[in-house]
Design brief:
193 residues; alpha+beta; nine-stranded antiparallel beta sheet; 5 helices; 22% helix; 32% strand
């Protein structure tokens, strides 16, 4: 079936204050990674990770990311494995620094980029493009382009949704709760267009 997730990593001295901006609180209960609607974890690298069990959570909206990034560095990802869609973006001081997205449902080599990409991005992307070509390009039975946005986020935060991260206890994620109804959800396919 595959993952359908929204990931938000927040570099903040006070993650609870950042969460309150999103109308999200920690419940004090533990849970397993990505098994509940909304979970979180303090990553070893100083980031707080929020995981929503759908690819189009409202915290991915540009207005929300812009507001949240006023006092925090933000890296956000949208992942929909059923259609091989992935995106990642970084925000700081209310502005998007970079954005990269892949939509492999119709074109395995689709890649859209914007902004000043993180250091090492081009060599990482080139390696995955070469791997795709080696395995048959557009006719390959695998989609290596899918990992390009997610590896860009991982290079900064140390976390990728489908890999084991050093120092992360996947059975001890924080169970999170939204304190108010979230409105105006943006569909995942609108995020990258």
């Amino acid at each position: 079936m595959g993952y359908s997730l929204s990931l938000l990593t927040i570099q903040s001295a006070d993650p609870d204050a950042a969460l309150s901006t999103l109308n999200i609180i920690r419940t004090g209960q533990s849970c397993i990674y990505a098994r509940e609607q909304l979970t979180g974890y303090a990553l070893p690298q100083g980031w707080y990770l929020v995981v929503a069990n759908r690819c189009d959570h409202s915290f991915l909206r540009p207005d929300v990311l812009g507001t949240l990034s006023q006092g925090n560095r933000i890296v956000a990802c949208s992942i929909e494995e059923r259609v091989m869609f992935s995106s990642a973006e970084e925000w700081a001081a209310g502005t998007m620094a970079w954005w990269v997205a892949h939509s492999g449902e119709h074109d395995l080599t689709d890649l859209k980029v914007s902004g000043t990409l993180p250091p090492g991005f081009q060599s990482m992307a080139d390696a995955l493009v070469a791997k795709q070509e080696l395995e048959g390009g557009k006719a390959a039975g695998v989609d290596h382009y899918f990992d390009i946005p997610l590896n860009a986020a991982k290079a900064i935060t140390g976390f990728k949704h489908d890999e084991v991260a050093h120092g992360v206890d996947y059975a001890k994620f924080d169970l999170l709760k939204e304190t108010t109804a979230q409105r105006n959800r943006q569909r995942w396919w609108k995020v990258w267009q």
